[in-house]
Amino acid sequence: MADMMWAGRFSKQVDEKVNAFNSSIAFDGRMYRHDIHGSIAHAAMLGECGIISKEDSLEIMAGLEKILDDIDNGRLELDPNAEDIHMFVEAELTKRLGDVGKRLHTSRSRNDQVAVDLRLYLRDEIKEISGLVDELINTIINIAKEHTETVMPGYTHLQRAQPVTFAHHLMAYVWMLLRDLDRLNDVSKRMNYCPLGCGALAGTTYKTDRFYTSEQLGFIAPMQNSLDGVSDRDYCIELNCTLSLIMTHLSRFSEEIILWSSWEFKFIELDDAFATGSSIMPQKKNPDVTELIRGKTGRVNGDLITLLTMMKGLPLAYNKDMQEDKEAIFDAVDNVKLCVRTFTPMLATMRVIKENMRNAAAKGFINATDCADYLVKKGMPFRDAYKITGTLVAVCIEKNLTLETLPLDEYKRMTDLFTDDVYHAISLDTCVRERKSYGAPSPEAVIKQIQEAKDCLSKINE
Over the stretch 106-133, which tens digit does the pLDDT of each residue have? Predict the structure, then answer.
């Protein structure tokens, strides 16, 4: 086995089992493009500052570009025996350029190198995830537009509570996801500072230009403290927090899809392309996509706990524990992308069964509050109206009736404030249509809400 780049201090080879234990290329190899871009910026800075000759700088940059092209096109494979992606690229460059390649690592450490690679990589991943969440939001909005008058029961404690519309219910998830999208933008801004040039922990004695490399790599500015630059992973934790919230929202939505697609609800039916069957029960149509999303939410939350636990006891600056950051955040990123990519077309292709939603809304006395409000509008204190309506519900249950079918005589036994117009006041259509307060489920209010959500999405994407 070839000597490690850092082997000068040691009198014998590291045990092969330690090499395997120490190696990270199996998972950090995915950052090869970002590692090479960071090295190109570093080589350019070395040349600009006269730390190495312009000729060597240009030769290194060209060599790195060629390595990138060879990896992209399959002419060069990552060596699984390499310690990490940084050492692989540097070793390959040295193999191709000789002593010139050995000059690349002047005035930097793998500590600041991995820090900049990870920020560059996650910056790109955030853009991709934001695009996927944006697509999901638009998909939900498009479905909501079609169902501003589709009446369904709203629930608390999973008990029928008050009438809403399907559009109103869907828009609740739009606002959750808009906040998630905003959080992704915030994370991206906060992490967009460059650690390159922080060295191992204490900067360097060379006259480098960290503002140059920061600008070349599209960062806002260099990180202000070299210790912080190499030992900070709060951006990974903050991103994982946001990813956990995205998964939590997907998981809640998934739970409702699971309920709605059951025979007990039958509010929606999933397209055959997004459901599976049973190996023994031929009648089954299982919502496996949504069940997997519920399960993967626990996995992404577990990644967050890994990162928090990894960092909680580390003294400054870099510690090898921090190698564990990548597998956790990569797993969270991968699973969020996988789930959103699958969830969006599943929603877009599901069939909404309007009549079942309305039939469910017609049961369960979900217009009882409206009955009480009817009396309040005629001058009765709310608590008295509440008690009378509760008594009427009990009468309906005893006689197997609903508030809509309860005779007017029964109403008048409670108070003469009830007249024929009570039946209009407690009809489902009236109950929904008259809920016009800001953010409420009336078609008029939801149409305004949809437009506000679209405006909010445009503003976030500016």
Answer: 999 999 999 999 999 999 999 999 999 9
Check if 169 is active-site.
no
The token pair that represents 118 in the structure block: 């990870």
pTM of the complete model beyond 0.85: yes
Of 107, 130, 147, 157, the catalytic one is: 157
Q: Is 278 a catalytic residue?
A: yes
CA dist., res. 22 & res. 14, Å (int): 10
- What tens digit of pLDDT does each residue of 415-424 get? 999 999 999 9
**Which residue from 263, 318, 323, 311 is spatially nearest to 287, judged by alpha carbons?**
263
Q: What is the pLDDT of residue 345?
A: 97
CA-to-CA separations, 423 to 10, 357, 370, in angstroms, rounded = 90, 21, 11
Residues in Cβ contact with 35 at an 8 Å cutoff, skipping those fewer than 6 apart: 85, 86, 89, 113, 117
Q: CA 84 to CA 78: how far, in whole Å?
A: 10
Which of 53, 262, 278, 424 is flagged as catalytic?
Answer: 278
For 244-269, write each residue's pLDDT tens digit: 999 999 999 999 999 999 999 999 99
String of DSSP letters for 285-319: -B-HHHHHHHHHHHHHHHHHHHHHHHHTTPPSS--
Dump strand ranges (E) for 191-335. Answer: 193-194, 221-222, 268-269
